[in-house]
Amino acid sequence: MATAVAVAVAPWKQLLVNAMQLNSNLKHSSYFQLATIGSNGRPSNRTVVFRGFEQEESNKIQINTDYRSSKIEDLKHCRFAEICWYFTDSWEQFRINGTVDIIDAFNPDPVKLQQRAKAWFAGSPRSRLQYLGPSPGLPYISEEQKQEYSLDPATGPVHAFCLLVLDPEQVDYLNLKSNQRLSFQSMQTDDGGKCWKTEKVNP
Amino acid sequence: MATAVAVAVAPWKQLLVNAMQLNSNLKHSSYFQLATIGSNGRPSNRTVVFRGFEQEESNKIQINTDYRSSKIEDLKHCRFAEICWYFTDSWEQFRINGTVDIIDAFNPDPVKLQQRAKAWFAGSPRSRLQYLGPSPGLPYISEEQKQEYSLDPATGPVHAFCLLVLDPEQVDYLNLKSNQRLSFQSMQTDDGGKCWKTEKVNP
């Protein structure tokens, strides 16, 4: 008899969903900072946009990125990342540490490729055009910039489009209004699932 | 004859000062995210407060922290850090990579100790009290929390107070309104000074 593996909703997730709701009047409330480690051994940090959870009942966090950006090189070198998400209205901070799955055009898993296509179509047709532009971070050549790009709205993800999925393993929650801090640590269960230990810590 | 070492004001600094001014109506405009590398080899990321430049003509960035916080352990293990500073009103991002100098109570340099004392007195008497509280990140014990702390406003920095000074080596500037990106790279000059190379790169 197969054992059912429970995908427990993490205890920090409701706090995060509440914070998103409380701050939803601010466009920047869906922006957070993603730290990675560069192949030069230095930390790297940039603002990215929250693109939803993998599924409604999942704890995994989705981010869209350009496959040619340096964060891909960072993540290929070291899969660990930490999100720092500060909500400016409710004064809440979430630090979410985990491993990142890179889902690019060459991913061998058809389910993941479908997930990538879904993320592509969830973006606006205008936002998709950026993936047709010149390589981010490379020297700017004015001739390249003059080019006008267009894309059929029905066209699937272009090669440069990449989906990142962060699987949280450790979450630190800080509320600066109530001055409370909680630490959440994931643990593997005997049946291959995940459970979370919650601890109140000093702010 | 001694050669004068020119401390050149970095070309990105005026952009940063302008952004601070443009966004000064927002309390959170002085908050940024600091990424470090933990001794476990994972990236770490948290929100901290900008406490000014080392001196008016300096490019070095000051941050106050608790010596007992985990970022000190991170920085002792690896001195590199990257600031990600996103200005929510002007849609500008600064990514500032450099090395961090830890100025704690045991620093042998009297000039640095003076700098630490200056940073201590620049904070409000109320904000100083947090350094008397229990160790950040350790399990919360309710009895400890009940304690009331007080401090003579004339008292100098307590042991737990630590000044961090980040010396920028590389800066990436992104303006999401104009869709322009600049890359600044520092280089050592022959006379031991520093000069900056500016390059326009693809956003």
UniProtKB/TrEMBL annotation, chains A, B:
<keyword id="KW-0288">FMN</keyword>
<dbReference type="InterPro" id="IPR024624">
    <property type="entry name" value="Pyridox_Oxase_Alr4036_FMN-bd"/>
</dbReference>
<dbReference type="GO" id="GO:0004733">
    <property type="term" value="F:pyridoxamine phosphate oxidase activity"/>
</dbReference>
<dbReference type="InterPro" id="IPR012349">
    <property type="entry name" value="Split_barrel_FMN-bd"/>
</dbReference>
<dbReference type="Pfam" id="PF12766">
    <property type="entry name" value="Pyridox_oxase_2"/>
</dbReference>
<comment type="pathway">
    <text>Cofactor metabolism; pyridoxal 5'-phosphate salvage; pyridoxal 5'-phosphate from pyridoxine 5'-phosphate: step 1/1.</text>
</comment>
<comment type="pathway">
    <text>Cofactor metabolism; pyridoxal 5'-phosphate salvage; pyridoxal 5'-phosphate from pyridoxamine 5'-phosphate: step 1/1.</text>
</comment>
<keyword id="KW-0285">Flavoprotein</keyword>
<dbReference type="InterPro" id="IPR000659">
    <property type="entry name" value="Pyridox_Oxase"/>
</dbReference>
<protein>
    <recommendedName>
        <fullName>pyridoxal 5'-phosphate synthase</fullName>
        <ecNumber>1.4.3.5</ecNumber>
    </recommendedName>
</protein>
<dbReference type="GO" id="GO:0008615">
    <property type="term" value="P:pyridoxine biosynthetic process"/>
</dbReference>
<feature type="domain" description="Pyridoxamine 5'-phosphate oxidase Alr4036 family FMN-binding">
    <location>
        <begin position="10"/>
        <end position="103"/>
    </location>
</feature>
<keyword id="KW-0560">Oxidoreductase</keyword>
<dbReference type="GO" id="GO:0010181">
    <property type="term" value="F:FMN binding"/>
</dbReference>
